[in-house]
Amino acid sequence: MSRTRAYRKGVLEDENFPVSQVSEHLDVADTIVWVDLCAPSADELHELAAELGLHELAVEDALESHQRPKLDHYPTHLFLSCHMVELRDGELIVHEIDAFINQRWLITVRKSEGCDIDSIVARWDQSPDLATYGVPYFLYGLLDVVADSYFDVVESFDTYYESVSDSLFADQPIDPSGQRNRFEMRQALVKVYRLVTGLREAVGSLLRREKGVIPTVLDPYFQDVYDHILRASDSIDTLRDLAASVVETNLALRDFRQNQITKKVTSWAAIIAVPTLITGYYGMNVRYPGLNTTWGFVVSVVLLLGCSLSLYMVFKRKGWL
User: Which phi and psi angles does 37 have, rounded to 5°?
Assistant: First the structure.
């Protein structure tokens, strides 16, 4: 499945033409071409690679999954690997986008249809006046949408950990499924952090003037994307600290609750032990003061109630009951 566009001097001239016509459009001066391939086969990508001179190592990376965010420089083009992310029902979904970047063409390769390419196209169409700058502008639009996806995920994480923080001090302990969910969310947060820091390095490489990739007029736009990614990275750093604090607080509260339970059990055991001691003493089959007398019975009851009530008052005052 593919999608194509041809621009001439920043104006959209043709759309959704066959990939086989890419060279025909490139033969026209001042024309740039965008080709999007969704889950292409090796033959499809190699055919386009032969036509445009894509480097074999970049093609190999585009065909493989789970690439880290990076920017590679080849003699005729750049190769960018980045990721759009979303948090759906507590599950982190990562969509990898690989891009071959040349002054005349931009080739994007998606691993699945789940990646929303329409949002990227819509971002391009928002500023048609900037389309005159060609591929660098389209690259900016791609990176801007990717950076926005990180902000959306960070906001979801922030909402989640806010609710977790509020529930930490609830009397009801967290069930095992809730503990597992917290662990998975923390893993997802670490994964997003790795993706953001990797993309930050890639965009930082693009901003270096000596590479000659970005026109000076577009520098503020790429700097804005870099700042967004940097803010997302800082926010994730804060969330990671918060996640670690949640774990430590949860452990501390668990130990506190266990101590409280231990105090209560120990206190009641002590209270019960006194009547047991008294009744056990008077229940021995030996002669003792007050045997078979009314006053002996009264003394045993007074001792039993007095000691038990005294212990109860002491433990209650200490907050153990």
Answer: -115, 125
The model's pTM is: 0.76
The DSSP-derived string for 229-294 is HHHHHHHHHHHHHHHHHHHHHHHHHHHHHHHHHHHHHHHHHHHHHHHHHHHHHHTSSS--TTTT-H
The radius of gyration of the chain from alpha carbons, rounded to an integer in Å, stands at 35
92 SS3 class: strand
Q: How many Å apart are CA 108 and CA 139, to the nearest integer?
A: 10
Q: List Cβ neighbours of 224 (8 Å cut-off, separation of 6 or more).
A: 144
Q: What angle do CA 77, 80, 85 make, to 5 degrees?
A: 160
* Residues near 223 by beta carbon (within 8 Å), at least 6 away in sequence: 207
> What does the pLDDT look like over 107-141, one tens digit per residue?
999 888 778 888 888 988 888 888 888 899 999 99
Q: Which helix (H) or strand (E) holds 82?
A: strand 78-88
DSSP type of residue 19: G
**Tokens at 278, concatenated:** 């008294």
Q: What is the per-residue pLDDT for 14?
A: 87
